[in-house]
Amino acid sequence: METFCKAGIISLRSLAIHPRNLFSLIFRVLPKLLCHCTGLLLKKFGEEGRVHPPSVGTSLGRMPELPQDILMDIFSTLEIPDLVRVGSVCSAWRSAYNTLRDNEQYKRSQTPCLLYTSESAGENVVCLYSLGEKRTYKLTLPEPPIRSRFLIGSSHGWLVTVDDRSEMHLVNPITGEQITLPSVITIEHVNSIVDKSGVVRKYELSYHTARQMVYKPSDPEHVKLHVKPTFDKFEVVRKYEPTERMVYYEPAVFAVDELRERLHYKAFVFPETSKGSYIVVLIHNPLNQLSFARAGDGKWTWLPPYTEYEDCSYKNGLLYAITIVGEIHAFDLSGPVITRKMIMGMMEDVIPDNIYIVHAPWGDLLNVWRVVDNEDATVDPAVHLLSTIEIKVNKVDTTAKRLEELKCFHDHVLFLGHNQSLCLSAKDHPHLKANHAYFTDNNKLYTRGYKNGRRDIGVFNLESNNRDKLLSPQPWSNWPTPMWITLSLAKLKMK
Fold this sequence. Notes:
Helix content is about 15%, strand content about 40%. The chain is mainly β. A five-stranded mixed beta sheet has the order 1-6-5-4-35. Helix 2 crosses helix 3 (about 70-75) and helix 3 crosses helix 5. It is globular and about 70 Å long. It holds the Pfam family F-box-like. This is F-box domain-containing protein. It comes from Urochloa decumbens.
């Protein structure tokens, strides 16, 4: 595995100066340059359709100089791995790259990469597998070591991590920028236990909720069974009716490095374009409740009363959150008073293993189900092996408050896992397979433990219900749990 991994690894932050590597980079940009200076560049780089690497002594400074605005137009069509490298070719290209980045003019949609770690690469290094180039890059991240952290989410180019004191940070793997989030003790359910010198030694986690949905049989005498066609097969399911009650349990005490195993589930970073800021949303225990924090906040804000949230999305100032039973709530966070609206009620009969909420490029709101199955543990009976067997895409009819199954996803692609759920156009990302879902694990067992268990990573055909491996052999390690990330050069506004 490691042999394969090393063969494809290139550092993104330093250009490979071997002539062949450098020339291959220039050649990828060449077709775009040809639109502006065809004759000059053809004479410079090749004869009769053949291209030859420059000699070691070739001066890049003698390359044809183009106006910076033209270079920026060309560079804005590149994905970030190529963009970072072209910025290292010469001073003129570097200047165009810096202007494009610093003025936030670079808006190109990125093809997600699979982010993972490798024991041989080092404790501070992450690897990025590019689906477009089918090659792996590695990046060194700031302290604390990434392999000592939990990864609880990625969105808009940012990782959300939890260190060994259960504190959270945002990290941009491309820029190396790291931002400390409000302390974990400012979450509604967490208190610190300090020693005589004021040092936090333990955390107290309260298990109270403002409201809990309790599902009990609709008939108190016996459980009613219903036969329902689900995921192209018939299943016998129990029908439950919800009731409400206030819940309170005695708090539990955890060591500073143990709280993250019980508290954190999934997190998201959403730009607030209208305010030039950002918001971080956290799904956390007890019972997968919601809290959020804006840039500059000193604490987390709790969003009661509902529980059992599984995924979030954000659009036009509204935070959309979906529960495991399919309820969709929209929180308006734009005003001084937070309001909540019910978009969709509980689904009947079916509760999938994982559920996602996605805003489609054409404007619809999607509810995506994922079903996994247990495999036999051939090596270690204590290690659970889960495999995705079915994925179903539903359009949310917000007027009728019902779901409409999408039988064909046409020329679009899903990315599912412990990251922000994405729906992308295959036309805009030609390296991706249309009508497919690219998935990684986001089962709680694997995001918080089972460090030696095989991860459920692959590509799923939404039409045939068949799955393929993303890459064989798979070079990634199992911990922290691999996830998708869309790279970004954007800097977050701190206020």
